[in-house]
Amino acid sequence: MSFRIPAIEVPANSPFANDALDREKIVNFIASIVSETDGNPLVLAIDSPYGTGKSTFVEMLEKVLSQNNFQTVYFNAWKADHVSDPLIAMVAALDEAFPRFDEALISGDNMARVRKVATILLKRGAAVGVKIATAGVVDLSEDIEDALSDTAADATADVIEAFEKEEEAAKCFKAELEKVVAKLPGLNKKPTLVFFIDELDRCRPDFAMSLLERIKHMFDVPNMAFVL
Prior knowledge:
globular, alpha/beta, four-stranded parallel sheet
């Protein structure tokens, strides 16, 4: 005996076939908002108590947008909140969405560059964290403190330089991501890439906050829409 209510089937060719709650009108309304971004970045948040059908709503919206020739990416945040940085899982979700296309149309393999720059970013972030953590060592002997006093300024400069390089990598990531999104019209898709992030309310709080920060700083590019 199963005590779990099965998920509603949402057919790709008829998203509302099994909908008993008359969600078609509001789904189409949200789809129209996504369709009218005029190239501007967009973030929409769907808010409702746990168990009220947000994931089903999102699935219907994704199917409607796909029918209208939008490229979509679905990301289950809860299944990924074991990773150290949400950027890892978000880039993996993007990467999974694009191989189905003709590689010849993605000149220079832009997704490969997005992956590479993301890796550099993660390494840079770890390096900065280590430098900051080790810069505040206390309870040193006087001899060691004297030896280190002359290099304190150099250590600070190293941290600043590492931060500047991380900022440079972040700009490079956004530039490469923008190139990927710009390829969509050439792939017979609408120019806006729609990135769905589901189950955010089930994630541990620090992961959810980190994910939102990544969206704010890393994915703020033209023709990119997020539905949380």
